[in-house]
């Protein structure tokens, strides 16, 4: 019977007949017999198959089986004599689907640097580390849906092409409808991009929030989970031009409800991943960052710290550490400040609330002091900001004033204002950067290594 390797490694019993399909990780030819490790992506560990010289076409088969070759092996499971594995496969037949020339196949048994692996993005998923990353990424996504579905949130699909820039959160990519046969030309012969989207202007979404608010005003609790785009030319280890965001939006909810949800949400995801991917998480702890398991334990078992922006500034002013960027009430926190608070001062995630209104988006609920807004950022050790959210401004007149102050044309967002005209309610939501979550969970240092196809400004790594 055809079986996934993870099931065999976990539950396979001696004398069971099985067939596995996968890619060869290593081959050891010991004259008279050979060990072949096969991996099908289902688990970190590979299954060891033993090929004996008595097999039909033994020599010819062995020649074809090199690292990277794709194979199907049928045989019987037997207890393994070797260390590190419980069971192995005594091969009876081997079929090679495609060989891989050892002279040119770029993956070897040795450890490759992540920089090198980025140059072979189409093959890097066959390594232990990237395999573990993408299994954990999948588990995080599953946990996210599970969390919201169990709580009755509706998964809504917000558009990728949109006419609003949400908040000017980042630089926008514009969408242009180019008819290649009639490319509009300007006088200097360059392409005229002002044609844009069927005569109007459109962008790739930087956040699904505003549209999620539309849906929350009918379904109460919703979430959107999809790709977002920011043309930011920042070559950092935590920014991509294309990344995934999870954005819940809750009607009849305030900032405290929002913080409670964000905290329960992160705890749930960590618990789920520890339960479903224990081998992968152990691997990260051993090979990538030896605080990964302690961090997971910390997230699950401790309450996050909650402080206001004003308190955060006071703490940063008291710090003996010197920062590159100034600390001053009214300026945004930089990643070094965020990391100091989470990593060094509180040693756990910190939720910072009530930021000055001039550094936050127009839609955030203004506090009675008229100086701060009900914003919240969740800061994670080693990463900094992982979640940004807020209670939204539900009062029409205040929202209109804020838009005016930020030079936002109300005609562009007439539908958004309508939500305040007809049945407005206090509501709140947040955005979690999905790749930053995966980084946080795995200890991976560079965001380009936690997404299968990273889209980022060209850099030395590409
Ligand atoms: P930062 O300050 O790190 O640039 P931001 O405040 O611009 O983030 P938000 O607009 O609040 O980001 O977006 C919500 C979340 O999306 C962030 O908390 C972060 O986790 C994630 N995020 C934002 N920009 C990027 C990006 N370019 N690449 C990957 N994730 C991102
Ligand atoms: Mg940003
Ligand atoms: Mg920020
Ligand atoms: Mg933010």
TrEMBL record:
Quaternary structure and interacting proteins, as annotated: Homodimer.
Broadest EC class assigned to this enzyme: ligase
Pfam families linked to this entry: tRNA-synt_2, tRNA_anti-codon
Record's protein name: Asparagine--tRNA ligase
InterPro entries: Aa-tRNA-synt_II, aa-tRNA-synth_II, aa-tRNA-synth_II/BPL/LPL, Asn-tRNA-ligase, Asp/Asn-tRNA-synth_IIb, NA-bd_OB-fold, NA-bd_OB_tRNA
Protein biosynthesis listed as a keyword: yes
Species for this entry: Scytonema millei VB511283
Domain of life of the organism encoding this protein: Bacteria
Family: Belongs to the class-II aminoacyl-tRNA synthetase family.
Single GO BP term: asparaginyl-tRNA aminoacylation
Record SUPFAM superfamilies: Class II aaRS and biotin synthetases (SSF55681), Nucleic acid-binding proteins (SSF50249)
PROSITE patterns: AA_TRNA_LIGASE_II (PS50862)
